[in-house]
Amino acid sequence: MKRLSGPARYRLLIGILFLLILYYAYKSFTDYSKQLIHEDQLEFAKSKGDPVLISVYYEALCPDSKGFIINQLIPVYKRIPNLIEIEFFPYGKATTQTLPDGSLKFDCQHGERECEANIIHCCAIEAIHDTETKLNVAACMIRDNQNPKEAFQRCMREYSIDANEVETIQKCYSSLHGKELLKLAGEATSSLRPRVSFIPTVTLDGDQRRQATVLRDLMGEICKVLEDGGMTPKACETV
């Protein structure tokens, strides 16, 4: 067999080296692609069972807000407490004005008493961390909120709220902090798209969906969200 000359052997080695580089580059790329796919699947598996986030934009003296919280939200929570999370934004169709001295002034749809009640709701929502207790206290206060401070004291006793939490809430609504919380609730409400036209407005995982249906059949709409995510809980089989 004819032996290759020096330059020919050099070219052959370069060619083999080039092919090896191509092979390992391709292998690294395909391995990385498989890793990405695997990570996506893990992410999907992790998010598949996440609870549905119910965001309630309401007013403390609004009859429709009261009806929704008592007749829809509480029964749904009792049926599927582990499949939902709840957040409250007590502001509704109020407006916020920052005065020249930096203080905050609110104009609420049902008057000054509702502004006071909204602030108390904001403070209670921030201070009470247990979801069930928070929901029960909000429902208790909105059930009879014509005297917001009396309603607050009654509901604190009814649900045996810890004295330290009660004091924290009282300090909150008696200070600038309570107004700042109401302002934040207003900013969250104003950021909704489409904009609020009816109170309460309720979103499921940030989606307003068909509001008339959500407000009338919250359980059915939550089940649709869960089913879209690949879950069909037993509680939804009879909905």
UniProtKB/TrEMBL annotation:
<comment type="similarity">
    <text>Belongs to the GILT family.</text>
</comment>
<dbReference type="Pfam" id="PF03227">
    <property type="entry name" value="GILT"/>
</dbReference>
<dbReference type="GO" id="GO:0016671">
    <property type="term" value="F:oxidoreductase activity, acting on a sulfur group of donors, disulfide as acceptor"/>
</dbReference>
<keyword id="KW-0325">Glycoprotein</keyword>
<protein>
    <submittedName>
        <fullName>CLUMA_CG007471, isoform A</fullName>
    </submittedName>
</protein>
<dbReference type="InterPro" id="IPR004911">
    <property type="entry name" value="Interferon-induced_GILT"/>
</dbReference>
